[in-house]
Each structure stands twice: as structure tokens, then as C-alpha cells.
Amino acid sequence: MADVEFFFDPVCPWAWITSRWVVNVLEEQPMDVEWRFICLRIVNEHRDYEKDFRPGYERGHTRGLELLRVAAAARATIGREAVLPLYTAFGRTIHLERNAPAFDEPSGVASILAEHGYPTELASAATSTEYDDVVREETQLALDRCGGNIGTPVLSFQPPDGPSFFGPVINKAPAGKEAVELWDAVWALGSNPHFSELKRSLRGRPDFT
Predict the structure, then answer these.
(1) pTM for the model
(2) Backbone φ, ψ for residue 4 (5° rounding)
(3) Positions of E strands within 47-171
(4) What's the order of all strands across the beta sheet hosting 154-157?
């Protein structure tokens, strides 16, 4: 098993920032991280998007499902080492370049696959339901590990039986020593069997730099 499992939806800006923090930690403190799937479209499938979300959220969450299908297809075809490079490229396009609509065309997904030397035919998975069971099962796994009623990302330490939790939610990814310090603090809280929640509603805007 991996040292850590990181469950992500590529369209979530908070998951993206947290993932960049984890990547920064890996530069200082190598470990085995498995990048897995939690789909916001599935998490929210019983909600009324017109009433409960601002305009554009349904398409955005559906886009996340489509990209997770592609990531699942790449993992099945190439191996789990294919997932992080895809996530990084998806996140770069969505969050840094602010060009999420690029993935509404098959050519947008195919170009990312080609960039990494992956078979471009995997782009067809975006509009197929072939990998929906995989995405749904991993989404449910992430929810079950945290007790439900959570969003993205989800971190699991020492899976499958170690501590799991939603977050941490940060608006900027620390690097270097600061990244490791936050990692150690999160691990200390998460591994305490009596710790449940630490939260504040104040939150800065996402800073992707």
C-alpha cells in the first residue's frame, strides 16, 4: 500500500492547492502517494443544481467527472504513475491558465494525453460510462473513510486503516520547510484518535502562484 492516498477532483481549486502542497512536501520528504478519485458530481448527484449552486457549477462538476474518467482509463492502461502527471496538466489548464472549457472538446483532452506520451484514444473515456463504477467506488470509499458530508480533497494516511480526513483546505501551497511543517502538524492532528474537527469560516481567495 502507498504511504498516503490523495483523493481529488480536478476541477476543485482547493484540492488543487492542497495537491501542490503535497507535491512540495514530496520534494523535501519522499514517500509513496497514490492519487485517487473523488467526484463532486457524484457527491452532489442528489442535489438540485439550479437551486443549490451558482450558474455553471453543474457543467463544472460534470467536467470533473469527465476528466476523472480519463484519469481512470489512463491508470487502467498505463498504471497508477500516470495519474499525477494528468492531474497536474488538468489543474494547470483549469486553475492556472483558466481555460477549463478547453476540455469540453475531445481535442483538449487529447492534447494533454499527447503531451505526456499517453494514447490519445483515452480521450474518448470522457464521454463514456465505462469507468464510472471505478470513479463511484473511489468516491464512496473517500466518503466512508471520513464519515461522509465532506468535499475535496481527502487525505488517507497509511491506508486502508490509517486516519482519513477532508482537507486541509489552504488558499496557498507552502513550499520547502513550511510545507513539511504543515505536513507534520496535519499528521499529528489526523493521527490523534480523539481529534475530530478544526475549522474556521475565514478563508482567503485561492492563490495558485
Answers:
(1) 0.95
(2) -145, 145
(3) 154-157, 164-166
(4) 33-37, 4-8, 154-157, 164-166
